[in-house]
Design brief:
There is one protein chain. The protein is an alpha+beta fold. The chain folds into 2 domains: 90 residues, Immunoglobulins (Immunoglobulin-like, Sandwich), CATH 2.60.40; 289 residues, Metallo-dependent phosphatases (Purple Acid Phosphatase, chain A, domain 2, 4-Layer Sandwich). The protein contains 10 helices and 25 strands. The strands form 5 sheets. Strands 12-11-10-23-24-25-20 form a 7-stranded mixed sheet, with helices on one face. The N terminus is likely disordered.
């Protein structure tokens, strides 16, 4: 690989120029600076990616390296000139394309510090970037979903254009204050190709902000997700293993984030993963789940039978472990549920802008970045009966979640809008919140067994499909 030719100054220039343009238009129309940045980024090919670490004292990194560069290092310093640096080493995996994906975890980070880092493999070195750790419990995360950076054989500029749109949304979010985490609820790619994930992390914003990914159904169309990611605390005891992903957890501030592969319907494995994560983090106040599939939105009637089955699997887990907030995608329609318990509305939140100690779990779905649903003839698709708030738009949507020990405030924006179209605050007076005491449903063990059998069969079929069409996933 070649070193990125552009300097940090050019990246800063890109950031400033990107933030100056408005409208949901292509990069070719919007930003000449992005077009100049793009060829060097693609030529370098490393696709440096920073994920959250297990806790705020860690960060996880991955990048592509030549096949003969078996050493993977991240050099970290508190000084921009990289003096007095520490070096962290990791491992690499051979990709389907024949090169390597390096994976390194940086540890022993102190709170309230800014660190400078550089990724290295063989003679290759990345630029010098920086990130900051939290000084306390409060932080802001951007939540989005269905980014759908898409490879298109008929349009060579499509990856550049859609990567720019996502970068532009990230800039919108960063312009509104400190951005400490980016959360995606799946379908980062459309075909699961390597080029889509390389394009996904092109934005300079992601050099300084950890990006927590979640597998969607489109991510499972290819194999690249497995090699690209470097997630902390992956659950490796599952009886039904996904071919490309594992459930994983991380802690930030006073929040335990649990990320699931909802493509796998094995309820027992997901429940055991939550038990382990909660057991290892008994004093963390907030519990937030992320997975891909919509549950209660109801905007797409032909998916309702699928949603009903998914609710049977997931709602007992939310109830038993008192999840506060669940972040989803898949439908591309923005909705926020009532407080849900026992797979039904326990407390209506309609018309409210805040709730204290809600009597159940709040489930949220955001809109898509590159594939917002287009409304036909002005007709509004029907909303689910358990939805407290919904919003229809043809523009990309992102959400800023302000976390503190006392509350979570959700601020939701259309791209290029200065003011949120919706705000909502969840407050908890103690760790238990307002969840009722959990009573096991008589049918839970039966549902768990059926879901486990289905999950196993589904993974066998998926694995066979990958083996049959392996060459389709390589080199794209």
């Amino acid at each position: 690989m070649k070193r990125v030719k552009r300097t940090v100054g050019l990246l800063l220039c890109v950031l400033l120029l990107c933030s100056a343009f408005g409208g949901h238009v292509s990069a070719l129309e919007a930003d000449g600076a992005w077009q100049r940045y793009w060829p060097d980024y693609i030529e370098d090919g490393s696709a440096v990616y920073m994920a959250p670490g297990a806790t705020e004292s860690e960060r996880n990194f991955s990048w592509y390296a030549p096949k003969d560069a078996q050493d993977c290092r991240v050099v970290v310093s508190e000084r921009e000139d990289m003096t007095y640096a520490r070096t962290f080493t990791g491992s690499s995996v051979v990709t389907p394309e024949g090169d390597r994906r390096c994976k390194v975890t940086v540890t022993e980070l102190w709170p309230g510090k800014t660190y400078f880092y550089r990724c290295e493999s063989g003679v290759w070195r990345s630029g010098v970037y920086s990130f900051s750790t939290l000084a306390g419990k409060e932080f802001t995360a951007m939540y989005t979903t269905d980014i759908h950076v898409s490879y298109d054989e008929e349009d060579a500029a499509n990856l550049m254009n859609q990567s720019y749109t996502f970068s532009h949304v990230l800039e919108n979010a960063a312009d509104k204050g400190a951005l400490d985490l980016v959360i995606s609820a799946g379908d980062q790619a459309s075909l699961g190709y390597r080029s889509e994930y390389t394009s996904l992390v092109a934005s300079p914003v992601l050099r300084s902000t950890p990006f927590a990914l979640c597998p969607g159904n489109h991510d499972r169309k290819g194999i690249a997700y497995k090699y690209f990611t470097n997630n902390p605390n992956e659950y490796n005891r599952a009886l039904v293993h996904s071919l490309i992903a594992r459930d994983y957890w991380y802690v930030k501030g006073d929040v335990l984030f649990m990320v699931f592969d909802s493509n796998v319907g094995a309820m027992t494995d997901h429940r055991n993963f939550v038990k382990q994560a909660v057991r290892e983090n008994p004093d963390v106040k907030w519990r937030v789940a992320t997975f891909h599939h919509d549950l209660y939105g109801g905007r797409i009637p032909h998916r309702e039978s699928e949603n009903a089955l998914l609710r049977m699997i997931w709602s007992p887990i939310f109830d038993e472990f008192r999840f506060d907030l669940v972040l989803l995608g898949h439908s591309h329609y923005y909705t926020i549920s009532n407080a849900m318990f026992g797979n039904k509305t326990k407390q209506s939140l309609a018309g409210l802008d805040s709730v204290t100690d809600p009597a159940g779990t709040v489930v949220m779905v955001s809109g898509s970045i590159n594939r917002p649903r287009i409304l036909e003839d002005g007709a509004e698709p029907p909303v689910g009966e358990n939805v407290a708030y919904s919003y229809l738009t043809e523009k990309p949507i992102y959400n800023l979640l302000d976390f503190s020990q006392e509350s979570i405030t959700i601020r939701s924006y259309e791209m290029d809008s200065d003011e949120p179209f919706h705000t909502f605050t969840i407050t908890k007076t103690d760790a238990e919140g307002g969840h009722p005491a959990n009573g096991r449903d008589f049918y839970d063990p039966f549902v768990r067994l059926i879901s486990d059998i289905y999950g196993w069969i589904n993974e066998v079929v998926t694995t066979a499909r990958f083996r049959l069409h392996w060459n389709d996933f390589v080199g794209k």
